[in-house]
Structures are given as structure tokens and as C-alpha cells.
Amino acid sequence: MTLFSCLLIGNESLLVGCGDALLERGHTIRAVVSQDRGILDWAAAKSLPVVKNIAALEGRFEGGDFDWLFSIANLDLIPDSVLALPARGALNFHDGPLPRYAGLNAPVWALINGETRYGVTWHMLESGVDTGDIVKQEMFDVSGDETAYSLNSKCYAAAMDSFTSVVTQLEAGAPKRMAQDMSSRSYFARLDRPEAAGRLDFTRSAVDLAGLVRALDFGDYRNPLLCAKIEVAGRVVLVGKAEAVAGSDEAAPGTVLARDAGSITVATGDGHLFLSGLSTTDGGLVDPTALTDVGQVLSGLDVAQAEQLNTGVKRMAKGEAHWREALQNLNPVDLPLATQSEGKPADWVCHDIALPQGLEGANALAAIAAWALRCSGQEQGDLGFCNQAIASAAAGLPGYVAPWVPLKI
After folding, report:
1. Which of 63, 95, 197, 264 allows an S-S link to 309, with CB 3.0 to 4.6 Å?
2. What does the mean pLDDT of the chain come to?
3. How far is Cα 153 from Cα 101, in angstroms, rounded to an integer?
4. Which element (helix H / strand E) includes 241?
């Protein structure tokens, strides 16, 4: 067995499992590149050098300073100059069977497509995304009740099992490489999202719709795409669980067949769909008995509406990472004597402000910001901000797009 030195890049717990396996077999980890707190803590406990970003590697290492580079659950693009650093090559873990499921969020797209077999791939890392020769692929069955969460868990287990084979190949001198058949390649981009913002189209079959809901069920983990939705009484309602159930009624698609405080059963183009785990977009539980009656037909989704949702989601997804971070670090300004304003959401508190004559635009915004901080006694904080562009976007997709953004002052 030949021992080797390596470098690890990634931001998920799979990197820790693979790193432990390498250390147990006596291999040397020259550095760990990550911004994940759990990985950084693990590296510190193992006394492993840490590099915060990929770009810093070029200043720290020269070509041939280590044997192998492992990219494990890493979503950042690695430049060719860094790929040239390892003496023997670079390998990447991909959570899908290549070349059929290249790109991001592959398990979700596989579930949406109704796949019954799935797998993970270790492949050589080249300048193209998920294009290098396959070193090891592990396939497994997809169960009928699979969710994004459970399929990702299977991918983790398969990754660890197959990593042993990958390391054994490297210890023997060289990986066994197999070129990908690019004629069967499919690619899913970072901004790709399910159709119509995940809105359920009841003209489809109950089996297909239940599969879509499961594909977007990430359990307690962060959902990187979107949630399944329906519209009830003009409100957007998120769907947590769905099950296709037997039924012979010839009711029109979208007809409410039964409902109770926690669920609703709806007719589809083929079969009945039992929906539960219903909530508002801000996380509140939804009681279907307060919104709909048996026999009512839920609003359908025509071609124009679907296209409007597709366009809106594509536009909004570009800024999602920025706004997600802003919302995670939200520090609302605590305004005294603020009251609920008619027509505003229940968690909004508002003040009516009379600005001096002639004060408008950026000057008005600066004045409001200064007033809010002085009133609250805070040195910094966030206000909910809406201008004409934000209001227009929200009005075009009511219930799907937030009518404000956090403004840090």
C-alpha cells in the first residue's frame, strides 16, 4: 500500500467522514478548505491546517506539494490553476449518477422524474462541471416513499461505502478510470427550479404530484430550491406531505373531496391526493376547514400563470443567496409606540411619519433611518424596505414574493 498526501475541499459533513477514513489509513491531509463551522472544528481537533477559501491555495502551495485533491460536497468552482497543484490529480464527489444527473440538487430532479434507481459518483476533476472520468459509481434502489431528505441520506451512506474503493485504488498507484458517455448527459443548473414555483397542477396524476412534494421535502435541513404549494381561498399554502390515495370519484381536478383541521383530499387528473403539513409562507399552521368546503374546486393553474411564476422565480432566484444571508442575520429595529397597521401582515408594526416639505428620495430614507435608530436607542438594525420596484414585483406574484426586503441601517 502506498501512502499519499492530500488536500480536502468542501462544506458538508461528508468531508469529515472521508477525512477520518483517510487519517485512519495513515494518509496525510495537508490542509482543509472550508467555511463550515463543524468542519473547521473537526480540523482544529485533528490539528489540521485550515484555508478559508480556494483562492488562497495558490499562495500557500506550489505544484506537486501534495499528491491528491479531494472535492467533497463542494459547490464552489475550482480554477484550473488550483487543479494543477496536486502531483497526481483531483477527484470530486457528485451526489448523482453521472452523466445522467450532472449539476446541482440532482437527487431532487431524480425524484421529480420518478427514477427507481439512483447512485453517486466519484470522478476525476477537470475544468468542465462534472465531466471527468468516472473512478467509482455506487447505485442503489429508490423506494416508493423516498423524499429529498431520505435520498440524500442514502447518497451519504453510498458515498462513504464507495470512498473506501476510491482510496484503495489510489493506494494501489492509480485510479481505474472510465470515460463518461456524454450523449446521455443531463445538467441541472444552480438557478433551475421546479415548474410554476412548485405550485401543484391538479390536472396531473396524484402519483406525480405526491412525488413532487416528496422531492421538495428536506426534513429539518435547508431547502435549497422551493416548497410545494397550492392556492386556497386566494392564499398561497405550503404543502409538507402528500400521498396518492385510492378513489374512483369522477370529480373535476382540484375538487375538495374531504378536509379536516390538518389535511385536505383533492381530486386530480388521475386519482386522489391527500395533503397534510399545511402552512402559510411565514410558518403558521393552516386549518383547511376555515378556508374551504367539500365540493369546492381549488383554483387551477393555466399556461399564462405558470409562465408568470416561472419567470418570477427565475428572476428572484438570482438574489436568493444574498437575501437568505440578510434574513438569517436580521436585527429588527425596535420602535417605541409602533402599532399594527390596517392591511399589513400581522407581524408588521408601523409608524406614520410626516416628513418635512421637500425631503424626498435618498434624503428621506436617510432621515427615516436616523429617526428609527435614535428612537430605538440602537446603533444598527434592519427596517423592512419597499420601493416601487419591490412593490411591483410583489403585486405581480402575490403570496409568492415578499413585499419588502431587509434594509440594514
Report:
1. 197
2. 91
3. 17
4. strand 241-245
